[in-house]
Design brief:
By secondary structure, the protein is an alpha/beta fold. Helix content is 46%, strand content 21%. The chain has a single domain, classed as Alpha-Beta Complex (Spore Coat Polysaccharide Biosynthesis Protein SpsA, Chain A). α1 packs parallel to α2 and α9 packs antiparallel against α10.
Length: 222
C-alpha cells in the first residue's frame, strides 16, 4: 500500500504503542515528536516507526512528517486514535479509486467510552461535520500528496491546524469515509465532559473570530 501514516506526538507513551500495534501493514509509519520527555520515541522505534524530531506544535509536526513522507497517500492520525476494520476497508477502496485523488477523506468520530455523554458528543461532532465540513484531527485525514500540496499543506500552527486545512480544502474536496476513528476519551474524563466540550467549542469560536491560534493554544492549555 503506497501510504504513509503520520502521527504527531508529545509524551504519548503507552497510547502511541497501542495505536502503532493496531496499524496494518502500510508503506511507512512516521512519528513526529514535539519534545517528549517520556519513552515515546523509544516506543515508536521499537515498533518499527520512523521517528522525527520537531519543534513543539502539531502544525509544525504534521508539516514535517508530510515533507519527509514517501507515500503517494498520506494518513494523518493522532497518537490516541485508531481506525476500525470498516475504516481500513474504506481507506483501501479510496486509495484504489483513481478519481479519489481529488478529494480528502475523514472518518466518523467515535470515543472509547460507553457513557451517554460520549454518544451525545459523537452526535454533535457529526452535526459539525455535516453543517460546517470541519472534521478535526481526531477523525483522521486521508489525502493524496498532490492535493495536499495543492492546498498548501498544514500550516505551522500550535492549534487549529486541522480546521485551517479543512477550510482550505472546502466542502467539495472533503468527504466522510465509512468506518470510525476510535479516539481516547481520556481528556473528557479528566477535565469533565461539559468542561472539555465547552473548551473545544470556545476555541473554534475564537478561531472564527480571528483570534491568533497561538493565543487560543494558551487558553486551551498547550
Amino acid at each position: 500500500m503506497d501510504l504513509s501514516v503520520i502521527l504527531p506526538v508529545l509524551n504519548a507513551g503507552e497510547r502511541l504503542g497501542r495505536t502503532l500495534v493496531d496499524l496494518p501493514a502500510v508503506g511507512e509509519v512516521i512519528v513526529v515528536d514535539g519534545g517528549s520527555v517520556d519513552d515515546t520515541v523509544a516506543r515508536a522505534a521499537a515498533l518499527g516507526a520512523r521517528a522525527l524530531h520537531s519543534v513543539p506544535g502539531r502544525g509544525h509536526q504534521l508539516a514535517l512528517g508530510a515533507e519527509a513522507a514517501s507515500g503517494a497517500w498520506l494518513l494523518f492520525l493522532h497518537a490516541d486514535t485508531r481506525l476500525d476494520a470498516p475504516a481500513w476497508a474504506a481507506l483501501t477502496n479510496h486509495i484504489a479509486d483513481p478519481q479519489a485523488r481529488g478529494w480528502a477523506g475523514a472518518f466518523r468520530f467515535k470515543l472509547d467510552d460507553s457513557a451517554w455523554q460520549a454518544r451525545l458528543l459523537e452526535w454533535g461532532v457529526g452535526l459539525r461535520v455535516a453543517l460546517l465540513a470541519l472534521p478535526y484531527g481526531d477523525q483522521g485525514l486521508l489525502i493524496h500528496r498532490d492535493l495536499y500540496a495543492e492546498v498548501g499543506g498544514f500550516a505551522a500552527l500550535p492549534l487549529m491546524e486541522d480546521v485551517d486545512l479543512a477550510r482550505r480544502l472546502g466542502r467539495h474536496r472533503l468527504r466522510r469515509l465509512d468506518g470510525a476513528a476510535l479516539t481516547s476519551a481520556e481528556r473528557w474524563r479528566r477535565r469533565g465532559w461539559v468542561r472539555q466540550s465547552a473548551l473545544n467549542l470556545r476555541c473554534l469560536m475564537l478561531y472564527f473570530l480571528g483570534v491568533a491560534p497561538a493565543r487560543i493554544a494558551t487558553l486551551y492549555g498547550r
